[in-house]
Design a protein that fits this description.
The structure is a single chain. Helices cover 34% and strands 26% of the residues. With 237 residues, the protein is an alpha/beta fold. The strands form two sheets. A six-stranded mixed beta sheet has the order 6-7-8-3-9-10, sandwiched between helices. Strands 2-1-4-5 form a four-stranded antiparallel beta sheet, covered by helices on one side.
């Protein structure tokens, strides 16, 4: 393994994750390397989404240390949050596309928000990311004219615009049919092979069988790590 891939994109030391005033995950210490693919599982309410939100600085880190893509998350300033979110991307279950704008306008919106200025470069980059996710001539379509799988591909294209070092995906296939989910999952593995680290929260344990990889599991206030211990991926407790 090269030293490049040994450099963590996520490093956490003795962190406690809170939901409002309740500690939901305690004493987390782990690192995720560049280009690694990691599943995050656990029953609803176990702290999965709260951990993800803390990683992308949507929730404050009150206890412990956390570094994501080179940014210290504890005490992070709002200007740094904007910079952090140019280096990482987040994908949600419910797409979060702007319903009143075309696919192109959705992608341009993110580009402008993250500092892109030149129209020609923006146009080229948009074509690149749409092609990469297997979508050709959809740039002038509205989100409602696309299937669920196509919408999620647009979301992934949007997430790839700034070539993130880390992709955090929270139940990205949760609203999709199984065969569509498989296509979306394959897209994630292709993105991962090109060097982007992926942390994927999922309830779909079939992926763990068909595409085995490192697993983190939120369970009873702890974060279990398959790199460090054996545990039952399927059990809810």
């Amino acid at each position: 393994m090269s030293s490049f891939s040994n450099e963590p994109v996520i490093r956490i030391e003795n962190a406690t994750i809170f939901q409002e005033d309740k500690a939901i995950l305690s004493d987390i210490s782990l690192s995720i390397g560049k280009g690694e693919f990691v599943y995050l599982i656990g029953r609803t309410g176990s702290g999965k989404s709260s951990l993800m939100k803390t990683l992308y600085a949507d929730l404050d880190l009150r206890l412990g240390q956390m570094e994501v893509a080179g940014f210290k998350i504890n005490g992070i300033k709002s200007k740094q949050i904007a910079q952090l979110r140019r280096k990482i991307s987040v994908i949600f279950q419910d797409f979060q596309l702007l319903a009143d704008r075309t696919v192109a306008e959705n992608l341009y919106f993110v580009m402008k928000a993250t500092g892109w200025k030149e129209k020609s470069k923006m146009k080229t980059r948009m074509a690149d990311v749409l092609m990469r996710v297997g979508l050709g001539a959809v740039d002038n379509k509205m989100p409602h004219q696309l299937s669920g799988g196509e919408q999620q591909r647009v979301v992934i294209a949007r997430a790839l615009i700034n070539e993130p070092v880390l992709l955090i995906a929270d139940e990205p296939t949760g609203n999709l049919d199984p065969e569509v989910s498989e296509g979306i999952f394959k897209l994630f593995t292709d993105i991962n092979k090109s060097g982007t680290a992926i942390l994927m929260g999922t309830h779909d344990h079939s992926f763990l069988d068909t595409h085995p990889s490192r697993v983190l599991k939120c369970q009873q206030g702890k974060l279990l790590d398959s790199d460090k211990e054996d545990f039952d991926f399927k059990s809810n407790y």
